[in-house]
Amino acid sequence: MTEREPIAVVGLDCRFPGARDAQEYWSLLMDGRDGTERVPEQRWDADRYHAPPPASPQSTHEARPPGRTNTVRGGFIADPDAFDPAFFGIAPREAAAMDPQQRLLLQCSWRAIEDATLAPQELAGTETGVFVGVMANEWAYLHLTDYDRITARYGSGNGYFMGANRVSYHLDLKGPSLAVDTACSSSLVAVHLAVNSLRARECDHALAAGTNLIMTPVINIFYAQAGLSAPDGRCKPFSAAADGIGRAEGVAVLVLRRLGDALADRQPVYAVLQETGINQDGRSNGITAPNRWAQRQLIESVWRRAGLTADDIRFVEAHGTGTLLGDFIEAEALGELTGGRSGGSVALGSVKSNFGHAEGAAGIAGLIKAVLALHHRTVPPSRFADDENPKLDLAGRRLSLLKSPLRLPSGTVHAAVSSFGMGGSNAHAVLATAPRAVHRSRHTAPGVFTVSARTPERLRANLLAQADALSRRPGNQLAQLCWTSNRVKSRLPHRAAVAAADLPTLIAELRAAAERAGTSRKVDGGRRGAPSVAFAFTGQGAQHPRMTASWYRSFPSYARHLDEIDRLLAPHTGVSVRDLVLDGDAEADRARLAQPALFAVQYAMAAALAEAGIRPSSVIGHSIGEFAAACTAGALDAADAARLVVRRGALMDSLPEDGGMLAVGLAAAEVEPLLAGRERLGVAAVNGPHATVIAGDADQLAAVEKELAEREVSLRRLSVSHAFHSPLMLPVVEEFRRACADVSDRRPALPVYSTVYGRALTGEETLDAAYWARQITEPVRFAEAAATLLADGVTHVVEIGPRAVLTPLLARLRADGDQTVNLHSAHPGEHAPAHRPQQLFGELWCAGLTPDWSLLYAEADRVPRRLPPYLFDDSFRSWRSGGAPGRAEASAPTVPPGADSPAVPSGADRGESCPPAPAAGLPDSVAALTHRLVCRVGGHDPQRVHDHDRLHEDLGFDSIRVMELKTRIEDALPQLGPLPIEDLLANLRTVADLVGHLRGRLADGAAPAAPATSEGAR
Fold it and tell me: Which residues 6+ apart lie within 8 Å of 201 measured at CB?
């Protein structure tokens, strides 16, 4: 790696006039459309501050009347006030006080990181830098001039620095975080600083951004008074019609990495920043006048450091404001470098022709245009190219405005971007096309596509957006697209997963999932502690031909573990159990091989799921399933278990086939009288309160069957070769005990719920030879053991086996209406889809578990592909129209109905206070009072605040809001006395926790405590 290591642009997102995202931005450029419009009524009364210049002004004063601008047009983005505060854990009142530029930067940063095929949560805690170019701070002008209305929220809601710091805070980014104001060049200077920070190893990822919002006519008036404003509000760079600046706004974020790191991770790269540079005009014809020599010196030095000359540059995205002086000086500076180039002309353009001068975001607007042009290998046309200014002599300087798109050649192509600040701070960058990388996927590989969102409504919108985007992707990228969705789209609480083996099916199922999104269940997110997973291992009878063959084909980890256990079984079976299972050999249905086959499948399933991060905290096994359960719990070595299950199956298979098994819909106590006098019958299993299995002699079983049929009792004969767990098994017990004699006698590493004992093993109990011998004839007390398991707080049970046998039994044992225990069958049977492992991972993830998705995919399929970024909720709106000083008015409600009073007590904010409780008692229940105060302080809709909501993560309570809430509670409940802040912080995880704490203090008499003070704004 060299000091001048190239920097990759790996992700981006933007909003500019006429373009809500990067895709629409590219369309706007390629179509050559005009993104300007009349000043929206939301901003200010355009006519009030407009004074068109007279045709023949007699004086400068007449030409430029004070307090007025000469235009009513500009480039404006749609819905600048829309924000999704809850997504970022920001209280509505805080969001209403935030500069909309901060809000836009937050959402744009999230989307840009996703565009870089990264989950934003993946960068949390890393040394990721944030560099924001910003020039305007008009929100402060609108809010901080009325001193009596200033609250703590407006302090953190304003300031250039907060644009960057807000992103770093909410995304938990630990690298450099700073805002840059060099006027019009701010955002390209921010890119330069980000590039240098990456090269200096200060950060491994960098967000380089620019933002500008036009909230008042102040700058418009300034431009008009300075003679810089175009009357039609449009920039016409390098045109004979150029007559000044048209203002514009926008927000954009680039995600940057060192090129070597990006290529090593196979990350898609838009383009490469080869070199950047900045300088200053110094003393020129005026502080706002550009300096030709400074511009030339900067451009030449950047090209030299990049190892390039004018011959290498294919096109230049110019600063190009459309002022006569600015265009002339920039053309001269460039022409002195390009005039002697060999070959054709250098294409010249400026995105300002499409929607105006975005000021603090102008540099990054031009940079993204160049990035996309290199990415698409096409340079968009320049508006107003048909009316080129002949005085600029562009042809003589080997520069040309594009009247139509320019297709770039193959191979490496270079471009340059300039951005010059009004005060003389200049920035320049040289880019190149990205190195070509081909990553082919397996054409028939299945996958599971995941989408997550914060609310059911957003889940539906994002599912539909992904389906629409996938309809334009090639089918051979299915697995890569699925893997990317697992990596990028899997961290939010409302979830949907679709497994598929082809793209059309995936698209159809995503749209179907969107229709069901309203019923999605929110993942707990750790509120009630970490998940507790139990594996339940199926017993004999679950086997079927080619069982789990789809797992072997589509789940490499499972295939590897099945191969391993097959090698341990083969010396004892004399055949490959794996081959018998995968080929559907009928021999695998006999006890001699069925038991080893079931064990092998269960062992491989459990091992593969554990490897994928689905690790059990307890196990339970039904009959033969206890052997794989014992291996999983660490009580049996795989080699010992393999030998024992083969011996067990062979011994049982050697017995006469003169028995049977009968499932009856009766309790075990009701069955016992039927067995009196029938010594060759016994209870084989108790699977539920009214689910018992009888096993033994065929004739005696037939008699019981006839008797129960006459009583109209529910009956079902089991298809088995022998009467397992019955007295007919007694002849093989002692021999099997001897076979188990040398098995290591060790305690399991996980809780084992024994179906021999009907309970969990105690601390001293082990699965010794006596246990395994007894297991052959003892009833399977599954109902008792499983009921204990469910009562012990397990959150998820995964049935391990080739058929869903235990899952329905567990569903009946689960308490009525209790949906806190999630039940899953690893493989529901012979009709399971061919991509069942992918489907299972999706089910487990939707239920709140976190599988290691990479194990589902081969190396060739673990290639990131760009997916549409997150679609935020835009229902929250907060804006303040910009009029004359002292006349700014809110244009929309900033907090929802019901959270109606200001939240800062004790005079800090003017609004009603919560009245103290009368001495006789509380005016309301503690829960209702707490709920109301939480909503008032945060500005939340009372209908959307629930007991389980976390005050910090979900409701946006920082230290300032905690202090506000503390004071509110003390005012409302004076009998509590002063509340120690440390007690509140310790009990503020959820609303319910706070309610419980207050109730406890009231019950204890709430002895007065010394008041605490805040440690400050942080």
Answer: none
Active-site residue identified among 143, 319, 375, 796: 319
List the beta strands (DSSP E) in 181-287: 205-212, 250-258, 271-280
- Indicate the SS3 state at residue 796: strand
Encoded amino acid at 615, one letter: R
Average pLDDT over residues 345-372: 97
Rounded to whole angstroms, the Cα distance separating 498 from 516 reads: 12
Share of residues in the chain with pLDDT > 90 (%): 71
- Tell me whether residue 184 is one of the annotated catalytic residues: yes
Q: What is the DSSP letter of 750?
A: S
Residue 169: predicted pLDDT: 94
**CB-based contact 951:988 (threshold 8 Å):** yes
Q: What is the pLDDT of residue 3?
A: 53
Phi, psi of 970, deg, nearest 5: -60, -40
Cα–chain-centroid distance for residue 231? 45
CA distance 835 to 839: 6
741, exposed or middle or buried, with CB in 10 Å at 0-12, 13-18, 19+? Answer: exposed
Nearest to 942 by CA among 991, 984, 979: 991
686: how many CB neighbours lie within 10 A of its CB? 22
Q: Report the pLDDT value the prediction gives residue 59, as an integer from 0 to 100.
A: 58
Which residue, chain included where needed, has tokens 């016409």?
236
- Higher confidence at residue 961 or residue 815? 961
If pLDDT is split at 50, 70 and 90, which confidence band does 819 have? low
319 is catalytic: yes
Residue recorded with tokens 């290199």: 374
Q: How far apart, in whole angstroms, are the C-alpha atoms of residue 895 and residue 91?
A: 9
Packing angle between helix 456-470 and helix 503-516, nearest 10 degrees? 160
688: β partners: 691
Which pair of tokens denotes residue 658? Answer: 């003169």
* Tokens encoding 260: 């070597």
Structure tokens that stand for 953 in this block:
């993560």
The reply to whether 414 belongs to the active site is no
Residue 762: pLDDT above 70? yes
CA dihedral for 295, 15, 940, 524, sign (positive or negative): negative
Task: Yes or no: say if 614 and 849 are a contact pair by the CB < 8 Å rule.
Answer: yes
Annotate 941-999 with DSSP letters as a single string.
-GGG--TT-BTTTTT---HHHHHHHHHHHHHH-GGG-SPPHHHHHHT-SBHHHHHHHHH
Distance of CA 837 to the CA centre of its chain: 22
User: Taking 70 as the threshold, does the pLDDT of residue 441 lie above it?
Assistant: no
The DSSP 8-state label assigned to residue 182 in this structure reads B
- Convert the pLDDT of each residue in 448-498 to its tens digit: 999 999 999 999 999 999 999 999 998 889 999 999 999 999 999 999 999
CB within 8 A of 831, min separation 6: which ones? none
Q: How far is CA 489 from CA 481, 482, 646, in A?
A: 11, 10, 45
Q: Which of 184, 203, 482, 631 is catalytic?
A: 184
Taking the C-alpha atoms of residue 276 and residue 364, their distance in angstroms, rounded to an integer, is: 13
Using left for φ > 0, alpha for ψ between -120 and 50, and beta otherwise, residue 261 falls in alpha
Q: Are strands 681-688 and 691-697 parallel, antiparallel or unpaired?
A: antiparallel
- Alpha-helical segments (H) within 778-805: 782-791
Choosing from 50, 170, 357, 722, the catalytic residue is 357
Asked if 406 contacts 175 with a C-beta cutoff of 8 angstroms, the reply is: no
Chain-centre distance for alpha carbon 945: 23
Please tell me which residue in 185, 623, 726, 881 is annotated as part of the active site: 623
What letter does residue 477 receive in the DSSP assignment? G
* 753: three-class secondary structure by DSSP: strand
Q: Is 685 helix (H, G, I), strand (E, B) or coil?
A: strand
With beta carbons less than 8 A apart as the criterion, state whether 752 and 629 touch.
Answer: yes
The pLDDT assigned to 905 comes to: 33
Alpha-carbon Rg of the chain, whole angstroms? Answer: 36
Q: Which two tokens stand for residue 50?
A: 């407009």
Structural tokens at position 726: 């019955």
Mark whether 50 is an active-site residue: no
- Annotate 336-357 with DSSP letters as a single string: HHHTT-SSSPEEEE-THHHH-B
